[in-house]
Structures are given as C-alpha cells and as structure tokens.
Write a structure and sequence with these properties.
- This protein is of the alpha/beta class.
- It has 9 helices and 13 strands.
C-alpha cells in the first residue's frame, strides 16, 4: 500500500520576510549600527575658553534631551582646535568663520566643513583716545589682528571707512603690505588677538574681534567707533566637522541643540548684545 502524502507540520511558522527583504535589511544594518555606535559615546566638541563655556553648558543640556551626550573640550586659542579635529581627537568644533577655516584647511591639508551657524562676532574699531573715525589724527597707530584672515578683515573694514585703500590684486587676505593708499599715513601694527585687545590704551585705535574686546574688558559701547554689519558677511561663525562626518547621524541633533531659543538668550546675555545669533 502507498504511503500517504506527507504534509507540512502545522507547528512550523510561515516565514515573515521574503528573501529580498531579508537581504535589504542585512544591507542597511551596518549603517544603522554605525549610527547607533556614534551616538552611544560622547561627541567631542572643541571651543574657545571663556564665555562660550557658559553657552555650551546649555547646548549640552539641550543635546541630552535628544539622547546625545556632548564632551566639550576648551582651548585658549584657535589653531590647535582645527588641528585636533583634523587628527580625529575631536568630532566637531565651534569657534571660527569661513575665511579662517579656509586658511586652516590649506595649512593642515584638512577637509573640515561647516554644518550649522552659531553667531556673528563683528570686528570693530575701538579707541580709548578718540571719539570718532574722522577724529583719528595724521600718523595714528592702529592695531590689527596678526593672523592673515582677520588682518585682511580688519583692513577691509578700515578701507570701508575711507581710511586707506587696498591694492586691487591683494586677494581675499590682504596684509599691511597690500595697502596701496594711506592718506593719513597710518601706522598699522600687527598684534595677536589677546595682546591687541589689551593694548588699546597704547594705540590710537584697534580693530578688534568683539569676543576678544569683551574678554579684555573694553567698553564695547563707549570705545566703539565703527563695526561690521552681518548682512552678506562671510565671517559668520559655525559648527564644523570633518567632511567624512558631514552627514553623520549625530550632526543634526548637535546643530539643533545649539540653534535653540535658550541658547540665543544666553548668547545675548553673556556677551551683553555684542555678538549676534546667526540662525533663523
């Protein structure tokens, strides 16, 4: 007698996924695991020491609500921050503007890119001796930042105020050697940012980054003769990361943690309105 046909035991479940869907899941799993691992450890962010530390305490709290832990690392000056990021010792930094980053990428052979705006720190002409730009005397000594990007920025501001003219072929980062016309015979003195800010009593005027002016105790209202506008200005600061991480899963929550109303309020409070939040 022929055996009865065998049937599938009812205890064996029907597959829930097709072979194609399983393969698709396996293909994306490494990327999902990578993103999860990236957010399972603290994201290391380099900043300048000072008032920005108070700002980033709030950013850390904001980030924590989205499951992102930030480890904020402070530096006393900017150059080492980009070097640390390029070397992989940091995941992000927040202290610089576009022209400065361009110079740093060139010098370091790095590929660091901006991912979200933070604030605009205008550069201004300050003086303890004179009340207006027009009152600056013949032969006045004016201090400017010694680094190429901010020296060029300072000279462009002086040019916009009619105090000098830069040679047309000077490029994006002119220096004192590129001054083509100097009708008041101004002496341009190049000084490092912290030294420049503290040297204002010894100068007729100084073109100082607002953040350094504040740190040096310069009276930002009484001593200000003129300053930049944010409109169409390339010197807006931002959060930056290595290009390979520009689309990492932790970048949007990091940027969002900064671009919040409580951070905006703290920026205005900490710098007494001297810097301007630069996101909408």
């Amino acid at each position: 007698m022929r055996d009865a046909p065998q049937t599938r035991p009812s205890s064996i479940p029907t597959p829930l996924f097709s072979r194609r869907s399983i393969l698709a899941f396996l293909a994306v799993t490494p990327a999902l695991l990578s993103a999860a691992r990236a957010q399972s450890r603290p994201i290391r962010v380099g900043i300048l020491s000072g008032e920005d530390e108070d700002i980033w305490r709030i950013v850390q709290e904001n980030a924590h609500t989205s499951g992102l832990t930030l480890n904020v690392v402070t530096f006393s000056e900017g150059n080492p921050i980009d070097a640390a990021l390029a070397a992989g010792d940091l995941d992000a930094n927040a202290f610089q503007h576009g022209p400065y980053l361009h110079a740093q990428n060139t010098a370091l052979g790095a590929h660091i890119v901006p991912v979200g705006n933070t604030y605009f720190a205008p550069i201004g002409v300050y003086s303890d001796k004179w009340k207006s730009v027009s009152s600056l005397p013949e032969g006045a000594t004016i201090g400017v930042p010694a680094d190429p990007t901010n020296e060029g920025r300072a000279l462009k501001l002086l040019q916009s105020l009619g105090l000098l003219k830069i040679a047309p072929d000077a490029g994006e980062m002119p220096t004192a050697l590129d001054i083509a016309e100097n009708p008041k015979n101004l002496t341009i003195k190049e000084l490092d940012d912290p030294v420049l800010a503290r040297s204002l009593p010894d100068l007729d005027a100084g073109v100082v980054i607002t953040e350094w002016a504040y740190k040096a105790g310069i009276d930002l209202k009484k001593s200000l003769l003129a300053r930049e506008s944010m409109e169409n200005n390339p010197y807006i600061n931002f959060i930056a990361v290595n290009e390979e991480n520009a689309h990492a899963s932790w970048v949007p929550p990091l940027v969002k943690a900064f671009q919040q109303p409580n951070v905006r309020a703290k920026l205005i409070e900490a710098y007494h309105g001297a810097i301007i939040p630069s996101w909408t």
